[in-house]
Amino acid sequence: MFSSADLDRLNFVRRAREMGFSQAEVRVLLSLSGNELISCGDVKAIAEKHLKTVRQKISNLQELEKSLSLTVAQCAGGKVSNCPVIDAIAAEGANFSATAAAEAR
User: What is the pTM of this model?
Assistant: First the structure.
């Protein structure tokens, strides 16, 4: 059986992971939250770094969305000898951003 403190800790970890914080960041945040006086400056620095990463991922995903949208618009559907989507995926240096694709995962 879990104690109330254990459940609070588990919920903290779950919420932090849902927000995209890494396991290492969650570990540090947990240790900081366990202090009698919380170093809000340290917490803020971790959160600001994470926010920067989140914003970069959003930017990369928007770039990927644009590229994919343009490629899908070129596809007429049906049976064809060349499919623009397949061609774009197969092409080295395609319009798709490698960074955006990696961030999407």
Answer: 0.71
